[in-house]
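Replying to the earlier thread about multi-chain prediction with a worked example.

Input:
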Amino acid sequence: MAGVSFNVRLTWLSIYDRRGTLFRKIEFFRIFFRIMNICHYLIPDNIVILDNVKTKDELLKTLAYKLAEINNIKTPERLAEAILKREKESSTFLPTGIAIPHARIEDIEEITIVMGVLPEGFKEAPDAESTYLVLLFFSPTKDKEFGRHLKLLSKIAAVFRDPTFVKEIAGISDKDKIFSLIQHQERRTEE
Amino acid sequence: MDPLSKYSTKTTAIVITTAMLTFVSYWRAAAVVLCDLGSSAFYACGIAEQAVGKAAPWFVLAIMVFSICVRVVYMESCAMFVRGGVYKVVKNALGGPLGKISVSALLFDYSLTGPISAVSAGHYLAGFINQLLALSGLGEFQVQREIFVTIFASLIIVYFWRKNIIGVGESSHKSLRIVQLSTIMIGVLFVWSLITLIAVRPPLPPFRPVPTEEAFGWLQHIPWLRAVGAIGVFVALGHALLAMSGEESLAQLYRELAHPKIKNLKRAAVIIFLFSFLFTGIISLFAVMLIPDGIRPSYYDNLLSGLSMYLLGPTIPKMIMQGFIVLVGVLLLSGAVNTAFVGANGALNRLGEDGVFALWFRRPHKKYGTTNRFLTSIAVVQLIIIFLCRGDVYLLGEAYAFGVVWCFVSQTLAVLVLRWKDRSEREFKVPFNIRVGNVDFPIGISIVFLFLLTIAVTNFFTKTVATKFGVLFTLLVYLLLMIFEAINKRRSTNKPHEQALEMVNLEFFNVANPAVCGCKHEKRILVAARDPNNLSHLKAELERTDAQDTDILVMTVKQGDIAHQGTVENLPLDERALLTNIVALAEKYGKKVIPIMVPASDPIYATAKAAFDLGAKEIILGKSLKTNPDVQLEKIAVAWGFVSSADPRKILVRVVWPEHELKYELG
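Result:
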């Protein structure tokens, strides 16, 4: 973790990478009260703008590989396989313009997330609603982590409940701005 | 267009209403039975004494003790059949025709119980009013008995018809009030009688019955039989048996008994025994001991009224006591009308579920969900009998009690036969069973059966009027039932199993909220149900949840068009089967559930939305046959996120299946 800097305040701890980009912001009271927060797991670097995605499998594989790359996971194919298997069981593409592909695997220690932005939209099926945001995440297989897995699913659904907001995000190319808007929306849903 | 429009953005709901989901306490169940059993305290000993002499109160006491044996037989049958009663039990053990014959005898008796009780109550009241008028110097103004009794009896019938239309909760409440008032009267009478007995020290009545010529009925022509002492004992017991009516109503009420059912049934049985032993048994004995032999015959129709006049003390308090006794008598006899309604309605319902009556006849009352057509038919029959007898109950009284005893005999035989036919574990068994190897020999039930059979056979030959009327009208009712069944089979397009499906009302609401769904408690849980054969999660929930402080809403998603106001016949068969099984489970556990049907295209989203709108604290899901429980939880988590985005709330979600449970808190 060379070059990593910390900024400790009364209520939160911010961790920056060597380029000074915010890596993680941990709000103490959220940890204390175990409040689930998307932005606890998502950082601007985990946001990927995707173009010309043809199929659902391609979209999911691309994001799974991206997540493996960001988090230095050596078995991206296992991630992709897990996501596709779960997706076959039940689609996670929702009518508000988002998809939440997810799986529980042994290869990771904590929840890891990546967000794909599809400015042009993607249709899972010809008659389906267009999907603009794909929040793909993995969580550990431990039973006690499943509660957090479920809470994150609820949180994502709540934050991206408004299709107008989803489309607004999809129209932005600046990852920091996307992150900031999501953070803002997340706070609004908690008020 | 809102992309979410494929989901319902507001929860519309069809709330299912039925009287079948009303449950009563053991106090109320005992009260309904006691109105019938207790009312016999006023006349049973008097009638028995006319037949077997001064030893009658011992036989009334013996019958009161024996009644607990019959009650335990009923308790075993209730443990096997929630919707029980003689028809169901006898049909399962001995076949449909015998079941119908037994219930025909019982229906005949129920048809007489109401009029006899109502007319007797009218007579008591008329006598009391006339006595009051005479005492106050207005002897020339006397109520015209025949007209007064007919009008009063009819009003009682109409009153309890209405109460039963509203539901057993309402009618049993009235019975409870009557029994509470009776208990005060019994307490005072018992203590006062005891003080008088200690002061006067009268001799005990003789134990040996002296049956009259008439009491031997057809047996009086066989002189050697009269010499057999045991015959006299059974003649006496047979005449005292009418003090034991009302047991069948307890079996019919078992369906409505609240949780814990068997425990509450035992409690009700003990209350019934204590009350009837003390009231009908001991007070009858006191009456025979304290009322002089020469005067007692004038009080045969109301021994208790006579007893009050022979207590120690000044005349005015004794007259006040007499007035109180008459008032309680009027109320108890009126309450017996309710017992007849409850019992007959239960028996007709069991016949209806078996396809004897047309579906339209079983359709529930739009507002109260009760089987109002059955209740109206019972009322009409009772009113006709009242108008035909014009206040004279002597013949009706003679004709009565055939059905009661034969109903007990067939019920006991059926429970005995079921010991072999159905060897599954029972929650309650009649005691005294000897186990040899793997076989239980039911000594207890066998003794009860033989005893009942002997009384019934003795009654058959000695109570000739009851036998003639009983056989004639049992066959007549049986014939009517067969005709109804044949007509229904010919006209109905329904298959036999469709007849057994629950008849309920559907009420459409634009918004589902706790008020329209009839929620009563702050704590609410929502159980999602879909497959009629996969309700183990509802079963687990009914075992776990205390319905006294929690509303259990059982929700099913209706895909496709929604019905507006109407009956369940508008719904597809599998949804009717689901509703039937939900009601059957709620009945089994004696816990109220609120079934609702939500029209939606996505069941998971609809479940989360309904839980949110109804303010539920928990969502209970059964294990899906298509996906694993983890995926079910993930889907509900997403749906909960959607519905609670504007108003974040916590909810506990549990996926329950046999011996497993997954539970997580969301939000």
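DSSP finds seven helices and eight strands in chain A.

Feel free to reuse this layout for your own posts.
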